[in-house]
Amino acid sequence: MLIFLDIDGVMVPAKGWKVPELMDDGFPAFSNRAVVALAQIIARKNTIILTSSHKANFSIQEWKSIFKRRGIDIEKLQRLPASPLNVSRKEELMKWFSSHPMTGDFVIIDDDSSLNELPVEYKRALVQTSPTVGLTEEHVNAIIDLTRNPE
């Protein structure tokens, strides 16, 4: 399964009133709840595709190290290509889907409201987090349900 993963608002709750704790690699710490949830999802050797606005800031190997320092060991990691700042997450994903026809299970884990405008065949795979809470056990259950009942 492919997992399209955002960072801010998913792994790092976005609380405007609070500066996130930075780890010694200079990147924010992930929430403990999100780490536990993501570990359950990727336990099945899934491929993570980063969609975060931070995706181009680090190499794939650096991203793997960032995740590993936070307790998540990712074997298969990719990222969407870098794009101009004025492109929405929806547009980024639609561009990727246009050149990568989806034949298997996939899920999009993101807090970006532009994804509510995805075509139905992609929106059905959207698990939308609350930006101030991030990824939780409830989202894991929704993802498991999605993979069992893809329609």
Q: What can be said about this structure in brief?
A:
Pfam families: HAD_SAK_2. This protein has 151 residues and is α/β, with parallel strands linked by helices.
What does this structure look like?
The chain is α/β, with parallel strands linked by helices and 151 residues long. It has helices spanning 32-42, 60-69, 89-99, 120-123, 137-148, and strands spanning 2-5, 47-50, 76-79, 106-110, 126-128. It has a 5-stranded parallel sheet, covered by helices on one side. Helix 1 runs parallel beside helix 5 (137-148). The mean pLDDT is 91.
First and last CA, distance? 15 Å
Give the overall pLDDT as a whole number: 91
The backbone outline, from C-alpha atoms, is globular
Question: Can you tell me the CATH superfamily?
Answer: HAD superfamily/HAD-like
Identify the CATH architecture. 3-Layer(aba) Sandwich
Provide the fold topology.
Elements: E1 2-5, H1 32-42, E2 47-50, H2 60-69, E3 76-79, H3 89-99, E4 106-110, H4 120-123, E5 126-128, H5 137-148
Parallel strand pairs: 1-2, 1-4, 2-3, 4-5
Helix pairs in contact: 1-5
